[in-house]
Design a protein that fits this description.
Layout: E1 2-6, E2 17-22, H1 34-39, H2 43-48, E3 60-64, E4 75-80, H3 89-105, E5 110-114, H4 121-135, E6 154-158, H5 164-189, H6 197-211, E7 214-218, H7 220-225, H8 229-235, E8 243-249, E9 262-272, H9 292-307, E10 313-322, E11 333-336, E12 342-345, H10 352-365, E13 370-375, H11 380-385, E14 389-394, H12 397-409, E15 413-416, H13 421-425, E16 434-435, H14 444-453, E17 460-465, E18 471-472, E19 482-483, H15 488-497
Parallel strand pairs: 1-6, 2-4, 2-5, 5-6, 9-10, 9-13, 12-16, 13-17, 14-15
Antiparallel strand pairs: 3-4, 7-8, 8-10, 11-12, 14-17, 18-19
Helix pairs in contact: 3-4, 4-5, 5-9, 6-9, 8-10, 9-15, 10-14, 12-15
This protein binds ligand BES, manganese (II) ion and zinc ion.
């Protein structure tokens, strides 16, 4: 998509369709609206003063008009922005996506948005173009007919009186973020016969080549040699060999204090049948998305490589398939993880924590001082938080608070659940150090977290359970249903803030 930085008179933007955000309680005489009111012959004013449009978020009204003079556009979409004082970059992204999808239905080719916020120009441009790019993602990759058509190929962002250079800087960032999110969403949408652990590794290698990341793929022989008995216990029942994907970003000039290094670690279960503790058939197809945490890591690393922050970041993805088989792990098997801890596997469907145990220990061994793991780990988090909040848990309140804060900027909810010694006691095993499940029906999400915590030594650590937020069951005005690319924006903000 072509992006435009518009700093002059908005109604005269060289596009077919205009979109403007109107906030709650605004009049048609407000700055940035009166020009549009004139262009539409007063229709904008009459819509605003009517009951049908109050500027609440989620509202839209389309106005058609006959262009005159230097005005090229012949339609204007009013988008409700809610409370102007509470406008965050995320709201701009939603407005952009809403405009894109509305005008795409009308076969429009070029669109411009005026978000009219007091956020700085580069932030506005970044959020807008990211939202516009994300709005184009569709689930039609494997359709041979009836493909969705993207007619909008030009998207302009207007910030009155801004320096064009500031807008362009934001557009460049937003394109990177939007493309990286769509990259991750495409991975999560891939069917599991296509996206095997090997294919996931291939995609990571390709991204690394394109963006200049260092990439190393550890095969099973290497993982066995390193003592990753926990990860390997999940892979053993699959015909598909596991891959540990390691992506490294090293800044040209580092500003990191005391050799600090952030690691992003992802659960990359390319399909989760449950193994011998087989899942019921109904709804099992959804488990192709069980590699969403891994997709988030690769997508975020792609963006980091292009945004070039001044701190080092390590990405680790455990790509594994969980299958039942004659060789598969049994409930009651005991295995030894890379850090020497022994695990009694009481449920082979609690496999995410088994692969993350070794992946997290590996990240710390590579020098990570802060570890953030992402995983579609538990059904329990969906029961607790639904699709609105990602469950967050960790051993360092500062890190947890920072992630929650970055989430607020990006419209991503993170809701903290407690971890404590009392919970950790509940995964003590009768015959090994720990077991991979807690008491039936009790604090399932926390049990997953305290299990992973056993494999973190000194690093700060946060665990994001994205089982409820990685997939959206319904289309929104700004986005198709399906994979969401959750956490990518928040993690990028976190990395940028730690420079
Ligand atoms: N990938 C699933 C988590 C999941 C379940 C996500 C349902 C979305 C919907 C995970 O591997 C799993 O199976 N977790 C078990 C853990 C249990 C056996 C302790 C679960 O949540 O049921
Ligand atoms: Mn499972
Ligand atoms: Zn799983």
């Amino acid at each position: 998509m072509k992006s435009l930085a518009i700093t002059g008179n908005f109604p005269e933007a060289n596009v077919e369709a205009l979109a403007v955000v109107v906030y709650k309680g605004e009049q048609a005489t407000s700055a940035g609206l009166k020009e549009l009111d004139a262009v539409t012959g007063g229709i904008l004013g009459s819509v605003i003063s009517s009951e049908e449009f109050k500027g609440e978020s989620g509202e839209t009204v389309l106005v058609r008009f006959a262009p005159k003079g230097k005005v090229k556009a012949n339609r204007l979409l009013l988008i409700g922005g809610g409370d102007k004082n509470e406008c965050k970059p995320y709201h701009v992204a939603v407005a952009a996506g809403t405009a894109m999808r509305a005008f795409n239905k009308q076969k429009v080719k070029s669109v411009a948005l005026s978000p009219r916020t007091s956020l700085d120009a580069s932030t506005v441009a970044s959020a807008a173009i990211q939202g516009a790019i994300c709005s184009t993602f569709e689930l039609d990759k494997y359709r041979s007919s009836d493909k969705s058509k993207q007619t909008v190929t030009t998207f302009g962002v207007h910030v009155d009186g801004a320096k064009p250079a500031d807008l362009k800087k934001g557009l460049t960032r937003g394109e990177i973020v939007g493309d990286s999110m769509n990259f991750a969403r495409d991975l999560a949408n891939e069917p599991p016969n296509v996206l095997t652990p090997t294919e996931m590794a291939n995609r990571a290698v390709k991204v690394a080549k394109e963006t200049g990341l260092k990439c190393e793929i550890l095969d099973e022989a290497k993982m066995i040699k390193m003592g990753m008995g926990s990860l390997m216990s999940v892979s053993i029942g699959s015909e598909q060999p596991a891959k540990l994907i390691v992506l490294r970003y090293t800044p040209a000039k580092s500003t990191a204090k005391n050799k600090e290094m952030i690691a992003l670690v992802g659960k990359g279960i390319t399909f989760d049948t449950g193994g011998i503790s087989l899942k019921p058939g109904e709804g099992m197809d959804a488990m192709k998305y069980d590699m969403s945490g891994g997709a988030t890591v690769i997508g975020t690393m792609r963006a980091i490589a292009m945004l070039k922050p001044t701190v080092p970041v390590l990405g680790v993805v455990a790509a594994v398939e969980n299958m039942p088989d004659g060789k598969a792990s049994r409930p009651s098997d005991v295995v030894t993880a890379m850090n020497g801890k022994t695990i009694e596997i009481l449920n082979t469907d609690a496999e995410g924590r088994l692969i993350l145990a070794d992946a997290v220990a590996y990240a710390e061994k590579q020098g990570a001082t802060s570890i953030i793991d992402m995983a579609t780990l538990t059904g329990a988090v969906i029961v607790a938080l639904g699709d609105q909040n990602t469950g967050i848990m960790g051993n360092d309140q500062g890190l947890v608070d920072e992630i929650i804060e970055c989430g607020k900027e990006n419209g991503e909810g993170f809701w903290q659940l407690p971890v404590s010694k009392e919970y950790s006691k509940q995964i003590k095993s009768d015959i090994a150090d720990i077991k991979n499940i807690g008491p039936r029906g009790k604090a399932g999400t926390i049990m997953g977290a305290v299990f992973i915590q056993e494999f973190v030594d000194k690093a700060k650590w946060a665990h994001l359970d994205i089982a409820g937020t990685a997939w959206s069951d319904a289309a929104k005005p700004h986005a198709a249903k399906g994979p969401t690319g959750v956490a990518i924006r928040s993690l990028l903000t976190l990395v940028e803030r730690s420079q």
